[in-house]
Every structure is written in structure tokens, then in C-alpha cells.
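Please, structure for the following, as C-alpha cells.
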Amino acid sequence: MAAAFFNLIADPNRAHAISVGTRPGDRVHPEVIEAMRELDVDLSSATPKGLTVELAAGATHLVTLGCGEQCVYIPGVKMEDWPLEDPKGQSIERVREIRDVVNGLVRKMIEANGWAASSGR
């Protein structure tokens, strides 16, 4: 959700997000797909990817979502943790709440770093 929001809102010439996990599932969970679809964001073809040092090596910022000690440490990369509840298996109402918190956090990050596109959602 965070990477999808980020890439919709941020100026692609200034910043781009990728979504990875420490223990990625084999698919995006249906409740997440449904909650994002409500905001016209289609994640149905998204494929979870694993977090590796190689993937994160080109990053300037790394946002983790409560992975704790499982997170990869990348020297020189600004790290921020958003300790959010995993939406997997949650009710659609709870997933919407998590989605909206993620959206707000992404917007704050983009604004704070000057990455906003002129026509962000």
C-alpha cells in the first residue's frame, strides 16, 4: 500500500518507491486489493518481493513497517519505522483504517522531503 500511494503522489523525477518484505507472501492479500481498489489503485497484479541488501543498496530512504530486528540495515540510508498492524486476515473495515494511516504517513513523508508531484492525488 505504501509504495503504491508513494508512486501515485510523488514526482517520479524526484523519488520512486518499491515494496519489499522480510517475509513476503506469495500474493497481495485480497482484503488489501479490495481496500486499495476502493481508491482506484489496482494491486491485483502486484507480486511481493523479498528485501535484500542489493535491492536496498540504491536507496536513500528505507521505511520499515514494524519488522524490528529482521530489517536489513543499510549504512548511509535514512531509516524510518512505521509500526503498523499487518492487514493480512483483517476485516475490510480494519484494512481501510490501516490503508488510511499508511496514506497519511506517505503524504507526510513526501511533503517533508519535497517530493510531491504537482498533480498528486
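The longest strand covers residues 61-64. The first helix runs from residue 2 to 9.
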